[in-house]
Amino acid sequence: MKVLSVVGARPQFVKLAPIAKAMEKQGIEHIIVHTGQHYDPMLSDVFFRDLGIPAPDEHLGIGSGSHGEQTGRMLIAIEPVLQKCEPDWVLVYGDTNSTLAAAVAAVKLHLPLAHLEAGLRSFNRRMPEEHNRVLTDHAADLLLAPTAVAAKHLSNEGLAKRTVVVGDVMTDVVLQVKEQVKNKPSPIMEEFGFHEGAYRLATIHRPDNTDNKDRLEQILDSLAHLDLPTVILAHPRLVAKCKEHGIELGRGNLLAHRPLAYPELVASTLHSAGVITDSGGLQKEAFLLDTICTTVRPETEWVETVELGWNQLVEPGDALVKAAQRPQPKATNETPYGDGYAAIAVAQALQDWKN
Ligand code: UD1
User: Fold this and answer.
1) Superfamily covering domain 176-324
2) Ligand 1 mean position, distance from CA 323 (Å)
3) Environment class of 347 (CB within 10 Å of its CB; exposed 0-12, middle 13-18, buried 19+)
């Protein structure tokens, strides 16, 4: 069997890592196509290096652009690759523009399409990711859902027959990397001279939080007023938006830092007093590392993190400050994101599925 994975943005490389290993273990031929949506080395190359992912077989070099332009250029570039490779499955990941472009290219060529991380919903139609995931789910032949909640969303949309719950592949990676880094100080501790638990981490990159100058200022000011230093890992989009708005990122107790490589991120989260974010992945990584999370968004796809008490959704201002400084909740034995063997379940589902 031949599986062709299409990836392009940072969170997809993380999910690709356990999948590439599982494919090898199951003896499945695996072709990796990188759209080039993310191209900075810290958003792309370091993930391949640190997570032991084979170099992409094809790199499309698409780069940045408006949603239509970027997605359209990817669609044009992916089509001939699919025609040349004729895979048994096209596997797409998550909810980026790379996901949607590959999904459309595959179904137009009548190639079987599988969607990893299917069924997530924010029910917020302002988010580009929500368009991407809804459209991809409805196009796909096989929906690989990470959780029971995701499977329920798919069922509500009439997609139950195409759904298999496989667990969350990010759990596979986080648990493995945690074992490698747990007994040493995190790079953030070493760099700033912080003790264990004496700092927080933040990431903010979503258009709804960065495009409006006043909202972004409010978020940064809230972070600057926390009782511990907060290190903000600056995605290039955040840096670009600060420049555009003419505002400084670092201020008060808020310290600007480059994005981290994946093992650095896991270690720095594990040894922190908490994270403040609008990233989907980091909400879950924090949960899996027993670190409290404060999410600057009106809703989350990862509702289990909130229900189990480890994540709070807030608006910037007093609510953010109060939530970020709250104490840790009681530990939970619940494992809504699986046991760390999701990638093998994905490989199995691809082999077993009869279209
Ligand atoms: C994308 C995904 C988002 C995901 C995020 C993870 C979409 C619609 N969004 O958002 O779901 O959470 O990746 O990081 O697909 N840029 C660089 N260097 C790069 C990449 C981007 O400087 O390597 C800058 C460019 O100014 C670009 C901007 O960041 O215009 C946004 O990049 P883009 O890939 O369009 O979306 P992200 O915000 O990264």
Assistant:
1) Glycogen Phosphorylase B; (3.40.50.2000)
2) 27
3) buried
Rounded mean pLDDT, 166-184: 96
Chain segment 318-355, per-residue pLDDT in tens:
999 999 999 999 989 999 999 899 999 999 999 999 86
pLDDT digit string, tens, across residues 97-116 = 999 999 999 999 999 999 99
pLDDT at res. 354: 83
CATH 3.40.50.2000 region(s) of the chain? 2-168+338-354, 176-324
Nearest CA, atom 35, ligand 1: 64
CATH 2.30.130.40 fits 2-168+338-354, yes or no: no
| Residues 196-234: tens digit of each pLDDT | 999 999 999 999 999 999 999 999 999 999 999 999 999
Residue 131: predicted pLDDT: 96
Q: Active site includes 271?
A: no
Q: How far apart are CA 55 and CA 128, in angstroms?
A: 28
CA nearest neighbour of 140 among 167, 120, 116, 165: 116
> Ligand 1: residues whose CB is within 6 Å?
9-11, 37-40, 43, 64, 95-97, 128-129, 205, 235-237, 240
**Beta strands in 111-206, from DSSP E residues, in sequence order:** 113-116, 142-145, 163-165, 200-203
Distance from residue 133's CA to the centre of ligand 1 (Å): 16
Residue nearest to atom 26 of ligand 1 (CA): 237
- Return the axis-axis angle of helices 342-352 and 10-25, rounded to nearest 10°: 70
